[in-house]
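Review this chain:
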Amino acid sequence: MACLHAPTLVYNTLLVYTRRVHKTKYVPHSCARRAAEIDARCACLPPNHNIRFFLKGITSLQQLTGQEHDQIPRFLLRILVNLPLPGRESPSRLIRALRALLDFLLLAKLPIHSTTSIQRLQKACQRFHDNEDIFVDLGIRSNFRLPKLHALNHYPASIRYFGSLDNFDTQYTERLHIDMAKDAYCASNHKEEYPQKTSPCRTLTMTKYSSVRVVSLATLMDTALDHRAPMFDIAFRCFALEHLRPELIRRRGALEENAEWLTISFDRVSTYHRIKFRSIDYTQKTSTVDCILVWPRRFDRYKQVIPARFDTALVYVNDASRELSYLTDTRVAQVRVVFKLPNAAYNSLLGQLPEAERPGPFVAYVEWFSPFPTTSHPDHGMYHVKCSLADRGCSRLCSVINLIPRFPAGGIPDGWTSSNVLDKYNDFWFGEFTDDHQYRSLM
């Protein structure tokens, strides 16, 4: 009989993860210090296009909306890593249980299923049951006889009978209700609202594009100012030499030695503050699926400081004709400057190259992180990366990623905020939970 009822992602899977993990507070209510530590970690997460962060924490939340149910699993596991448990209990089983639930949630959201994906779904459910006793040992629950948790066992059969679960997802109708009814009503004057509720729907897709500024190279390289790209000049010279004299790449240090003699004929560039990743579906409809923000520090209309934001991204470092691997051919980098060369400078410097070998006019200055290790962490499956001084060139930006600090066990240091943690710390975890496309690529 259970197979006759198709499960929904909102009311079954998401509620199991957020309510059973967050609302039951795997840390008991009496452990106020650990609750404060969780909220402090939430306040130190770097911003990301795909994640809404709760800068005031999550332990005090009472009623969660559907959007909050969707957002909390994207970072919850990562802020619990290395958090001490009561009685000096090892957190390994807890982390493995949460990772198994998160894998189940992301696998259940796949738009297309195969025998392999269903087997992975079953294994994720089994991994959770193998480690669920940690919640009993911590005194959070006495048993796991929960209807919604039991319903997870029927997901594979439901997928085989009815297809992927997005066909039965109540988020579609609820989203339309919010966009077309609630938000439209709030935009009206609450009098004769019906004709007014239909007119805003034509303007909901309007976007405001970022402006382009002309910035001097001295401003870009000044560490006390906005972009903080002190090696911009030498990095650009090396970038140009990689294309003009590719034989120098094989000799260690040869690029830096010859870069001093390269003359550049410009002293300012046009900078861009936003890179959008667009997707085109089968109906040729274009949508923005991701966005890199490269905003220097600025002031709002009330003269209040808006902190700088330089997003992290996955960058292809190899551009061979073979099929690229997501981990071995990419590295994490923080994008500091996105700029376009003046046309005259581009033609004089790189115009002599054949058209097929010329780089594009848009260039990014990035700061590297260490390469991915060969294996991920055995408990939570994330990869450990550090800030690096490597000067390797990049091929093209791949996608936006979100790094989570490898929080020290002693607590959050003073002065850490969401806007400066990438500059103040150099030890991070990389996980693929921020967006569904990234998770599928790393499966």
Summary: The longest helix spans residues 92-108. The chain has a mean pLDDT of 76. The CA atoms of residues 3 and 158 lie 5 Å apart. The radius of gyration is 25 Å.
